[in-house]
Amino acid sequence: MRGVVMYGPGDVRVVDRDEPRIVEPTDAVIRLTATCICGSDLWPYRGAEPADALPMGHEYVGVVEEVGSAVETVKPGDFVVGSFVISDGTCDICRAGYPSRCVHAEFVHGTIGTQSERARIPYADGTLVATPGMPDDDLVPSLLAASDVLGTGWFAAVAAEAGPGKTVAVVGDGAVGLLGILAARELGAERIIAMSRHPDRQVLAREFGATDIVEERGDDGVARIKELTDGLGAHSVIEAVGTQESMMQAIRSTRPGGHVGYVGVSHDVALPGDELFFSQVHLHGGPAPVRRFLPDLIDRIWKRQIDPGKVFDLELPLAEAADGYTAMDERRAIKVLLRP
Question: For 20-35, how does the pLDDT look when each residue is reduced to its tens digit (9 = 90+)?
Fold first, then answer.
């Protein structure tokens, strides 16, 4: 089969890979209907993480072709959405609601690699969720978003305790930040402040529910959030970038007793203990437990209550994946959908 492999910074190729097959009785093999490029894929693309023959891709939807003898919840012919982290669904950590830290957790990125035509998914019962039927093609982008960016944005909003009567600020206007805005709206937030400098992303932010736009960054951005919140800061802040600047901007934009939901993949972030101590801000985040939210998100998408697929503003065939990486790296695309 054909699949995307990264051989080094900026070196993305579509190459022949081994066909997946059932190895364990808990496995499923799926044929990908759609996959995509994630903002986190740009870290190795830009040289911030190692990449040496790295199978790429961790967001995926497709049709089950084959299942192992122990698989009970999906069957051949089912259309499925999968989490970007493999989980068994039965361990104590999974049952507590954190399948992304399952005792058998395996990141799809770099191991399975779903920017490909087919994929073997271990622990299928704990990782995949079948849709009610075969979706209309226009629903596929939104179902694909649920696999990571929607689920991650949703977790960020939940971790930040977004809800009725709350003011939510969102640091980061990539796909995750934008879908954090959508999640905050769905959770009932009263006011949602998007921190964005890009007009096209501001338009989508408002469409997803943003009530205010703040273009300033760093200390200036914090000052603007305080100005909009009577000097107190937001009740809930979503951090969707993963840099030192974005994390401190998020913490400093949060009022005492407020909550930060951080889901940007951390790169060299160090928190000053004294400032954190006196801020009295709650911090919760990390790799999103997407599998926890999939049934609810699929239901909302299936009923056309939400349309997160709008974050995909460029669609390419899998064979042109390298062009998709370039477009996202140059910020000519928010998120690229790939069709195998």
Answer: 999 999 999 999 999 9
